[in-house]
Amino acid sequence: MWRPPERIRYASQTGRIPSREEAERSLLFSPLEEGRLSLAQRTWVPAMVPWRATEDGFVSDAVVAWYERLARSRPGAIVVEATGIRDVPSGPLLRIGHDRYIEGLKKLVHAVRQASGHKTRLFIQIIDFLTIRRRPEPEKFFERFLHVTEAHRHAVGDESATDTEVRARLFALGESGWKQALTAREFESLMQGYRDRVTDEELPHIRDLPKSLPPLFAAAARRAEAAGFDGVELHYAHAYTMASFLSRTNTRKDGYGGPPDKRLRLPLEVFAAVRVSVRPDFVVGCRFLAEECIEGGNEPDETPAIGAAFATAGMDFVSTSRGGKFEDAARPAVNAAAYPYTGPSGYECMPQFISDARGPFGRNAAPTRAIRDAIRAAGLRTPVVCTGGVHNFEMAESWLAEGVCDVVGAARQSLADPDWTLKISLGRGAEVRTCEFTNYCEALDQKHKVVTCQLWDKLDLHAAGALRSPDGKRRLVAPDWPG
Ligand SMILES: Cc1cc2nc3c(=O)[nH]c(=O)nc-3n(C[C@H](O)[C@H](O)[C@H](O)COP(=O)(O)O)c2cc1C
Ligand code: SF4
Fold first, then answer.
1. What angle do CA 136, 141, 142 make, to 5 degrees?
2. For residue range 319-377, what is the model confidence (pLDDT) as tens digits?
3. Among residues 408, 323, 368, 126, which one has the least CA distance to residue 242?
């Protein structure tokens, strides 16, 4: 992962630890009742893909165990990891693109209900993503994938060369020559691997996204409802299709790109299609980027209006994230695919302890507060969830007190210690295993390996009943807290 050149080291802090009475009186452990969203406390476990679904995208026992473990501390809400809405192979990423996935998801819902004593609200993040290919061998790229044009003939200085000759001569140019001879897009396909963009309107499946996506999202939400979830989180963040429609980089010419109102059009149409497809009390919210953190992307001057538009349309919550884009992703190895969390925008999404002067904790707080302010200025009380770097009570409580958000999301801290909020609520915050923001977990995520935390994955490795990774070297869920 990319890291800021300043390389300043930060240590997580336990902060002031409240007594049980103080925790009981706190904002963090107070209930939230707003429209369809009702939470017993304002703690939220945001979506995290732990890479433990089956190769066909079904819920496995390890998936159930992961959510059951998170639910034992009864957080206000858990959002199940990004789950694909299409019925297409996508490796061990959960899927909800067909009715055959409902049974497995029901098991997951049941486990969370039991473990949380029906206290935790359970949502599922539903996602669409476009085709991305692995970085090809250069030889293969020139032999098979490159569509030879007159520009290439011109580049090799032989207008009468055959396609085969052009391919061979281009290949012989080497990297510096390729940069000159190929278009920027061709060069990117060669060095990063090809990927579809929402602006590729000449491709029928991309042109038709405004028609195909609303029913796909609506069907996925209906399946989530059938499986027993309390609601869905529409994934409008990071490097994926809906975030790309929202982005300032979306220049589509068909009324779904360009000015802000046009870029909002499909996200609002998807929401409308989902809303009418599910029962009236089913929660529908979204996750979107408070800041894209790429050149030419959405900046905090524009995202408050996006949040206000979602709230005005009737979303039940908005949850924010930042960055996580393909545009600045690191160049992958040959035969590997680019990953959106490997560049500077990826760092913004999951900053680690080696950072810059702004540090890794709370980078998303100010832009999220601006979004919440815009929603309130529009006369709406839509709850806002902010995530990023939270790892202690003091920080979470200050966000709520200062109006950054209404609900506090903690991803890595919940992975490091799934009981952390329970411990704090009982006045036993000194026992919290505090996340060190090393991003060991994120490195596993990048390799699509089962995600665990270095603070516990070797503890009691051979305890009876401990689920282990396929190589047997890591346990898959945190050890029990005797309480
Ligand atoms: C292993 C891992 C998987 C993640 N998967 C998702 C995901 O499926 N959807 C999503 O919106 N964010 C995902 N995220 C981002 C987190 O939800 C969160 O925004 C980010 O980790 C920053 O919050 P934190 O500092 O509390 O960890 C993931 C993060 C991690 C560490
Ligand atoms: S591996 Fe554990 S300690 Fe390290 S960043 Fe991930 S959750 Fe935090």
1. 155
2. 999 999 999 999 999 999 999 999 999 999 999 999 999 999 999 999 999 999 999 99
3. 126
342 Cα–ligand 1 center, Å: 14
Ligand nearest to the CA of 438: 2
CATH number of the domain bearing residue 35: 3.20.20.70
CA distance 461 to 75: 26
Q: Are residues 407 and 289 in the same domain?
A: yes
The ligand placed nearest to the CA atom of residue 453 is: 2
DSSP string, 138-183: HHHIIIII----HHHHHHHT-TT--HHHHHHHHHHHHHHHHHHHS-
Q: Is the residue at 394 inside a domain?
A: yes
Ligand 2 centroid, distance to 323 Cα (angstroms):
19
Threshold 0.90, pTM exceeds:
yes
pLDDT in tens, 171-213: 999 999 999 999 999 999 999 999 999 999 999 999 999 999 9
Same domain flag for 167 and 256 = no
- Our answer on whether the CB atom of 249 is closer than 6 Å to any ligand 1 atom is no
The structure tokens listed for 295 are 């050149």
* pLDDT tens by residue, 369-398: 999 999 999 999 999 999 999 999 999 999
Among 164, 191, 218, the domain boundary falls at: 191
The reported pLDDT for the residue numbered 134 is: 96
Residues 335 and 417 in one domain: yes
Q: Are residues 60 and 203 in the same domain?
A: yes
Beta carbon of 439 within 6 Å of any ligand 2 atom: yes
Q: Whose C-alpha lies nearest to ligand 2, atom 2?
A: 453
Ligand 1 binding pocket includes 247 (Cβ within 6 Å)? no
> Are residue 168 and residue 210 in the same domain, yes or no?
no
Range of the structural domain that residue 148 is part of: 138-191
**Dihedral angle sign, alpha carbons of residues 160, 164, 165, 168:** positive
Tokens of 156: 């090799």
Same domain, 125 and 29: yes
Question: Which residue has the CA at smallest separation from atom 3 of ligand 1?
Answer: 48
* Predicted pLDDT of residue 483: 86
Rounded to the nearest integer, the mean pLDDT of the chain is 97
Measured from the alpha carbon of residue 450, the closest ligand is 1
Q: What's the gap in Å between 410 CA and the centre of ligand 1?
A: 9
Which residue's CA is minimally distant from atom 30 of ligand 1? 48
- Give yes or no: residues 352 and 421 share one domain: yes
Domain count, the chain: 2
pLDDT at residue 152, rounded to an integer: 96
- Does residue 90 or residue 397 have the better pLDDT? 397
